[in-house]
Amino acid sequence: MGTIICQICTNTIDHFENEKVSTLYGQCTCCDKKQKKAYK
Fold first, then answer.
1. pTM of the complete model
2. Which of 4, 23, 33, 34 could bridge to 14 as Cys pair (CB 3.0-4.6 Å)?
3. Which domain of life is it from (predicted)?
4. What are residue 31's phi and psi, to 5 degrees?
5. What is the distance between the alpha carbons of residues 10 and 16, in angstroms, rounded to a whole number?
């Protein structure tokens, strides 16, 4: 079982079934919205 973690706030986004990967880093919707506002 693997976990997807937000690389900005380190909250757990989701869990997935995969034998080779244990942790993936992505961006949650909350942090994504904050970044889009910062670029405007």
1. 0.65
2. 4
3. Bacteria
4. -70, -35
5. 17
